[in-house]
Amino acid sequence: MNELHITFYQQDIIWGDAEANRQKVKKMLANTVVSASGADIFVVPETFTTGFGDHMAALAEEQEGPTLQWARRMAAQYDMLFVGTWIVKEDGKVYNRLHWVYPDGTFGTYDKGHTFRVSGEADVITRGTEKAVFEYKGWRIKPAVCYDLRFPKWLRNSELRSPNSELDYDLLLICANWPGSRHEAWTTLLKARAIENLCYVLGCNRSGIDGVGGKYTGNSALVDYKGFSVAEAEHGANQTVTATLDKERLNTFRQHWPFYLDFD
Q1: Closest to 204 in 3D by CA, of 232, 169, 245
Q2: How far is it, in rounded angstroms, from Cα 107 to Cα 68?
Q3: Active site residue 146
Q4: Active-site residue, selected from the candidate residues 24, 46, 61, 191
């Protein structure tokens, strides 16, 4: 599949109310995905059911909890891949876990690899140790969460030893709660990760004001392999954006400019 249609929701998250947030996303899905003739992938921000803060661990769900069951229904109803993070408790530990949920109800997960010590997240959320890449409709996709964006070695693309000299992934997908006070770093790092990894990068961030007064401007964006914007959400808005990724153009660029052959 050469084209991939992706919709991302720059959500103003309701603080600590998982059911209200699920209903909010459900309404947005009904209003946008259907009217846009469908999307292959729908993405929501980090901790989209609770917001990001000290209250997260107390609101953690079991892996087979209500949000996963809800995400399965949404993925099946709209025949799309649903992607987002929520807090999961498992074996006595708590994780900031990104999920990708297929229309058939199966799913994969990635646990946030870099928990944010400045906010105290590292004190209550267990750090993930495994990287991930999954495939959907012919696209190789690497998931990451918020603070991971600052660590290029963790997100490094690499050459697959194959006849076509392919790379590990085509799309880096980042769910975040990145504060507006550091939005310039956010937008700069999205472009940097795209350029250095010869891939598309989607950064889906939240908007609004959280329960402790933190302000989020969103600045959600889809960036191409040259660092140019493909699509952007309006600064500070609660809105969805739909865009199309082109695999043929990506492959052509990689063939003409095979910088990956000289990766360190």
Answers
A1: 232
A2: 9
A3: yes
A4: 46
- Secondary structure of residue 100 in the 3-state scheme: strand
What's the rounded Cα separation, in Å, for the pair 248 and 200? 12
* 179-222 residue pLDDT tens: 999 999 999 999 999 999 999 999 999 999 999 999 999 999 99
**What predicted TM-score, i.e. pTM, was given to this entire model?**
0.96
Q: How far is CA 193 from CA 32, 33, 75, 228, in A?
A: 29, 28, 28, 12
* Model confidence pLDDT, tens digit, residues 88-117: 999 999 999 999 999 999 999 999 999 999
Are 152 and 196 in contact by the 8 Å Cβ rule? The answer is: yes
The gap from C-alpha 98 to its chain's centroid, in whole angstroms, comes to: 8
What does 162-218 look like in DSSP terms, one character per residue?
A: STT--BS-SEEEEEE---GGGHHHHHHHHHHHHHHHTSEEEEEE-EEE-TTS-EEE-
Q: Please tell me which residue in 24, 61, 112, 121 is annotated as part of the active site.
A: 112
CATH of 3-262, one of 3.40.50.300, 3.60.110.10, 3.30.360.10, 3.40.50.150: 3.60.110.10
Per 3-state DSSP, what percentage of the chain is helix, strand, and coil (rounded to 5)? 30, 30, 40
Neighbours of 155 (CB within 10 A): 22
Q: Which of 146, 175, 199, 204 is catalytic?
A: 146
- Specify whether 3 is catalytic: no
- Respond yes or no: is residue 46 known to be catalytic: yes
Give the pLDDT score at 161: 58
